[in-house]
């Protein structure tokens, strides 16, 4: 791996090629607008449809703008105050007596494992802290790599290393065993505990920026940091991740203004140890499950980070996002990228839907009103994002061809504007962002609508390609048929609602309903 790939985020830059693409992109929009606007003015149906959907668009993008404003407030006002308090404690000589690391790995690429372990060692050396490293493994292969790295630092660093070999498959088992092993040791409740994946690398200064926050903020229970993905695969797959993490960087700062976040990512999060060694916390990670009205009780495969987040949300814990602390995650993509993207989106969407509903049930008082509404908005957005395509297809086919052109123009303008904001958080201009953003929103909405009635149907390609084995008895087959029926029912009602809202079909009157059923 080239060391330049692990360099800190660079200042915002606009490459000449991307500058040319900006002019080309917005030039196309101007040309379409000039050609389209006169015809649009004389087409009453096109004007009416645009007017009707302007209210929905205003709501969605004002909500997006709210996140942007909150993120700027957090970045330039709220967080600097906390940063100053933390730096004061660090510069005064405060250090935690020990830092606990909980790292899980399974048949990871040796070079990646070496980089991850070396980053922990270097960060502990630079910060001047001792550490206990609990490594949950599933094979001797990973343990040999770790031992080889530590053999080069023998005597140079005070890091206690303990391997916890899991006896059952799954990352959740590895984390649970490692935490139980940690709980049997004499650890102080105020020591920070770092959760890491085996493919995560701490950027220089990460510990120094995170650790003193637990001293400066006595009520802080957990935090997570900025993240950069390094993809071994197609360039557009890297761009997709860059876009997602730019969105994440903005949204996390908006959420953190409420002293909560929407996920404590499993790639790297830090907790106050007293929170993670409770029986409730550990058992939830090991065997989290959900009672569903259709599917009954089923357990979760992936989404351990959502489980830990749910436990802390239930306890009313305080959380934060550290925008100037950075970790790198390395992912290798062999073969076509699209199937891998779909697998990731299905897993992430499923985790969000499985956990979002039960956190919403906690109520706005415990969750905080803004975060509570963010969770509701996630469920609304999966429908509102497909309103435009549905209306455009029917309006374009049956009313006016200008609907196609007006929708394309709207997508180019709206996603181009949103992408311009995301450039600030990505640290660079990439004119593939507008199109990837639209495709990501549309695909995510469609997958969530499909998954919402099929929450138990999980598959996790990591750690042995796990899946939840469902024995397709007659009862289970009937449940699957019911899920298909409900999906088509909801989609049909949704389409009819959109067509009625867009005035593409008339609103049914009571007299017509009576006539249809033959009532007198």
Q: Please tell me what the overall shape is.
A: globular
How many DSSP E strands?
Answer: 12
Helix-strand category: alpha/beta
> Going by CATH, what is the homologous superfamily of the largest domain?
Spore Coat Polysaccharide Biosynthesis Protein SpsA, Chain A
CATH architecture of the largest domain: Alpha-Beta Complex
What radius of gyration results from the CA coordinates?
25 Å
Average pLDDT value?
Answer: 87
As residue ranges, the low-confidence spans are none
Can you walk me through this structure?
- The structure is a single chain.
- The chain is of the alpha/beta class and 520 residues long.
- It contains 19 helices and 12 strands.
- The chain has 2 domains: 13-63 and 382-513, no CATH class; 68-340, Spore Coat Polysaccharide Biosynthesis Protein SpsA, Chain A (Alpha-Beta Complex), CATH 3.90.550.10.
- The protein is 60% helix and 14% strand.
- An 8-stranded mixed beta sheet has the order 3-2-1-4-7-6-10-5, with helices on both faces. It has a two-stranded antiparallel sheet with strand order 8-9. It has a two-stranded antiparallel sheet with strand order 11-12.
- Strand 1, helix 3 and strand 2 (131-137) form a beta-alpha-beta unit.
- Helix 5 (171-183) packs antiparallel against helix 9 (279-286) and helix 11 (337-360) crosses helix 16 (433-451).
